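Hi V.,

You were right to ask for the full record rather than a summary. Here it is.
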Amino acid sequence: MPPLPIRYSRDLSCQIWSLDGGLIGRSAGTPDAPLAGGRPGFTERFVGERRWRVYTHVDPERGVRVMIGDNLAIRERLVRDLLLGLVLPAVAGLVALGVLLWLGVSRGLRPLGRIAEAIAARSPDSLAPLKVDPVPSELTPLVRAMDTLLIELDRARQAERAFVANAAHELQTPLAGLKTQAEVARRAIDPAMRDHALERIVASADRTSRLVRQLLDLAGQERHERRAGAWVSIDDAIAAIEQDYGLIAHRSGRRIATACSRPSLEVALDEDALRLALGNLVENAVLHGGPGDVRIECALDGDLELRVIDTGAGIPPEDEDRVRRRFERGRGARATGTGLGLPIAQMAIASAEGNLDFRTLRNGFAVVLRFPPARFRVTTA
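Predicted structure:
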């Protein structure tokens, strides 16, 4: 082990005193004054301007007192220099580490800055995918997710524009008819012609009212948040449909009949959504079905099926995909309609994983709401 530098060499001093207080001997450089008060053991004492830590040994047999002192200034200097040797490099290292971290973070966030600049430079109407190159592999999922979101937003905006345009067109037709028939009724001299015009006004008003109601229902389904864990009784929903649409069926000389073999069924769906889906199917059957009664059947065949059956010709297979779209009707449809009933029904049951099916029967046509086993239950009520 190499020797310590001179400035760290220990400054030990020794004094030998007789028990009667006489100085017998001392080491070189040791003060003449006693290093300690004479009490055996360790003590600390200032001698002049220096502080000493002294060990005193008393030997009564030889009649001497030996004092060995250590100058504490050497210790303090060593501790101070040691702290400076540790702290200064540590502070310098921390500063260097902070600079490196700042440079690294700045460089790492530079791609995010480019993405932010690309977004800030875009027009609010632009929903095209972002084009930021190069992109680090860590940010690629973020850019892809943003591009996917922008594409979906663009599709939603285009669908909204198409919806508004179709709604405006559909509203324009009955309003124009209302105006025309009102002019005919106002100028008609023949009472029969006037009565006919008034009947057409009533029919146009009914059609407009139905269109507005279905548009509101459609908008409500798009923004409606389903209640988690909601269960609705099938029997209660069918009873409400009979009450709501019984008068409409009666006016056309029909009635709504039900045939449910298991009335104690519940489906995991909001009550208003189920009534809306069934109500639109029943209304379509009453307005566009054959002359016979409208039947509501429920059956279990693995899945739960709610069937709305009428005696009409139904929807041709080639038009089934077409009528699922908004404002679309079968090519052979003759009666007036809005083309919203089936899309509303499909949207209303979507939260319960329900599907809308079509079946051609021997003496009629059925529109079926089908729910998987996980979305319905048999109760003991």
